[in-house]
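Exam revision sheet. Question 4 asks you to relate a sequence to its structure. Input first:
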Amino acid sequence: MSASKKPHLNLVVTGHVDNGKSTTVGHLLVDLGVIDQRTIDSFAKESEATGKGDTFKYAWVLDSIKDERERGITIDLAFQKFETNKFFYTLIDAPGHRDFIKNMITGASEADAAILVVSVKPGETEAATEPGGQAREHAFLSRTLGVGQIVVALNKMDDAGYTEARFNEVKGIVEKMLKMVGYNTSKVNFIPVSAWKGDNLVKKSANMPWYKGPTLAEALDSFTSPEKPINKPLRIPIQDVYSITGVGTVPVGRVETGTIKSNQKVIVMPASVSGEVKSIETHHTQMDSAEAGDNIGFNLRGVDKKLIHRGDVIGNVDSPPSVAKEFEAQIIIIHHPTAMAPGYTPVLHAHTAQVAATLSEFVAKIDPKTGGITEEKPKFLKTGDAAIVRIKPVRPLAIETFKEFPEIGRFALRDMGTTIAAGIVKSITEKYDANKK
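Answer key, structure tokens:
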């Protein structure tokens, strides 16, 4: 059966450093038969040769992909894609990837579902789940970015003697953390696993007869495939624009919402220029129309290449994409070395756009759980704070509210090479009118 016949889901694996994300995914892929034992054994040899010992062999599966990526070698995509009984999964960010958070926010990777890996090893559990811990940060982000489906792998059960008591203790800690960020934990599977030994990844573990729930692979099958936002107005954030001799202007991007077809008139924002779609293709195959989820290139007649840029958004002429001069957003400060005050200008990343943007006003500090206001007009914001703020991009930005278009209504704020904050657009407070300039 070809992979594409099953419903497709984007999966992201999150959790604190050293809690075993890479080993979990590596061993899961081996047990699912995506990667053969021979490959793993050769990784194990390499791993031993580097003095890391055999323990790293599953993590090596993913690290070798990352190295190959960094060296620009084309890699076997089998690593990135795998099937369970019910779904065809794309792993959208190998764990440990430095730009993971940015990718997750800017929709380079729209995750439909997440595996959160948390170690049950004393010390490691606390580091991951306490304020500043990555498990907490990733859970917060997943929630803010609308990743509704999550499964928790409580890893390193072999280190805890496979005891039910330790499982229950850590499950309680993680459950509390997930509730705090707004997940309905009655719908979340908590699975005791040993990524290293393979317990409860694909095969039921004989070491934990007390556990009656699903394995990790079975839990992945309990997810539901999301509805494609086909009935919404068309939105295509532009990734690149080419000028092809004899063809003309060819923008490339992923259809986030709606549908597009040949001979349709579309508009490019913020330039506010319209043109006609002459032809559409995906992976060198011509198509008459494309819909949400398709990565396409299309020949746009009547629009000069110089008027289209990466980060622009294409939409229907009768419901053009919004362009903001200023918007109100809800943000969560993920990491800031000190504190930020109004006037701070980091770089905003949203869909395919990057633009410097000033936090012009701090409207209120809020309780991230309830959304209730805890302080009006705070003087500064620091790591861990959630707030409503006003943001002014230095030039007009095509962006939408998260409520109407979650796919393009979220963003990250970055500075000095790290993600400072993640947020969603609540309302556009000042629209840009191209005709008024």
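Marking note for examiners. The two ends are 54 Å apart (CA to CA).
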